[in-house]
Amino acid sequence: MTATSAAPGASSRLLVVRNDKLGDFMLAWPALACLKAAHPVPHISVLVPAYTAPMARLCPWIDEVLIDPGEGADRIARRRLLAEVKAARFDALLTLFSTPRIGWLGWRAGIPLRLTPATKWAQLFYNRRVVQRRSRSEKPEYRYNQELAEALLAALGLAPGAGPEPPYWPLPESERQAERRRLTEELGLDPTRPWCFLHGGSGGSAVNLAPLQYARLVLGVDARIADGRQPQWVLTAGPGEEATAEAIQIPLLDASVPVYRLPTREGLADFARSLSAADLFIAGSTGPLHIAGCLDVATAGFYPARRSATPLRWQTCNRAQHRLAFCPPEGAGEQDMTSIDIAAAADRITGFLISHNRREAQP
Fold this sequence. Notes:
alpha/beta, Rossmann fold, 2 domains, six-stranded parallel beta sheet, 12 helices, 12 strands, 37% helix, 15% strand, LPS_LOS_Heptosyltrfase, Glycosyltransferase family 9 protein, transferase, glycosyltransferase
């Protein structure tokens, strides 16, 4: 065995690390799909925090999930993780976002091939590095991740497969229809009208529209569509975001616009499957938006103008015709979401919904 490949004919054992937020992890799914398409097919393990582990277990490109105890873990937990990684005898480590702790882990575990972006001093623990300049935001984040996966395959001598295409979470249509039936029973939604899910929370990181801006957006879309064909609006919320959903809902109910709340789900995995029922998912650049993107649900994302958080950099990984993106105009403050033209956004979203309904009506 060499330092860059498994034994001839053997399945390479790969450890992929993306151990930060949910949205970042969802944008790793295209890279995981790229790795799983290689020949011979590698065995893929991921190291993720407990929070995103339920999604990792749903990912069809992952064979095994390892839990990262995190930066604040005690010495016992860190030793336990090191022993687990050593015992797995990985052929390669791919760290999509490098940190010194993970670099040190891979080096101490004796993983022969360790690849990461060539940024920060953590790269010193790796023997393969790829220059990307992500801070320039010249490509989508998921494409940067795919480039790292492609570099790893080349280093291992594995033949790349056909380029994976959306959906990167290929949920069977039967499961999507089951989610729609479930919501029809729970909320009494009209299945003949488009279902628009709206997530007003920010996950504690992404800048988002204010609740009243979202309420204006809903009113604007409804006003542009003929009576009786308006969307069914469903508000979603993560833990601690219920007050934001209520702040969107109250002015809409006051304006006699029917708007529903997604019922409580049994954890992240159950919540994520529910999003497959949507015809359009509207949110800031948050984890739920990127779950919808992996499902190839149509998305309308609201982004700040900050260079490191542009609509291009944090583009959802659904098909291009399923993506809408909005951000402050040139000259506005980087995080001045109040400068986004809500009327123009309502126009574009209305146009999408009308064209979507026409496609759905075709035999």
